[in-house]
Amino acid sequence: MDSLVIVDAANVVGSVPDGWWRDRRGAAERLRDALVGHAGTGLPGLVDPPLELVLVVEGAARGVASAPGVRVVSADGSGDDAMVRLVAEEGAERDCLVVTADRGLRERVQALGARVAGPRTVRGGRGRGGAS
Questions:
Q1: What's the whole-number mean pLDDT along residues 1-27?
Q2: What is the 3-state secondary structure (H, E, C) of the chain?
Q3: Which of 25, 61, 65, 127 is most enclosed, with most CB atoms within 10 A?
Q4: Contact residues for 40 (Cβ-Cβ < 8 A; gap 6+)
Q5: Contact (CB, 8 A) for 25 and 16
Q6: Could you tell me if 27 and 118 are in contact, meaning their C-beta atoms sit under 8 angstroms apart?
Q7: What's the predicted TM-score (pTM) here?
């Protein structure tokens, strides 16, 4: 079964002060597009292919479309709650990695058996937080 990688869009986008706050939806779309390459190659040292990549968006970024290899989930409310639900419902029986630097979210998903890694995992070395 494919590994599940869930990416906290708000947290990863917010890890680099590049003006993302002026266009939250555009920033989420750029992140989604950057993730497409990982769908085939995996995340070196963390997750080998095949994998299922899920980008969770919330707030002003809701409505971003999925792309080949990246399923986008628009959270109805809290993005953290949506990610915890995904881990519980889709990650219970397989390897699951959540990409975020949010300490509270990390604790919640680790309690469900998921592994965690920081934004650098998908930002190519930029941003805060590495793999844990």
A1: 90
A2: CCEEEEEEHHHHHCCCCCCHHHCHHHHHHHHHHHHHHHHHHCECCCECCCEEEEEEECHHHCCCCCECCEEEEECCCCHHHHHHHHHHHHCCCCCEEEECCCHHHHHHHHCCCCEEECCHHHHCCCCCCCEC
A3: 61
A4: 49, 69
A5: no
A6: no
A7: 0.91
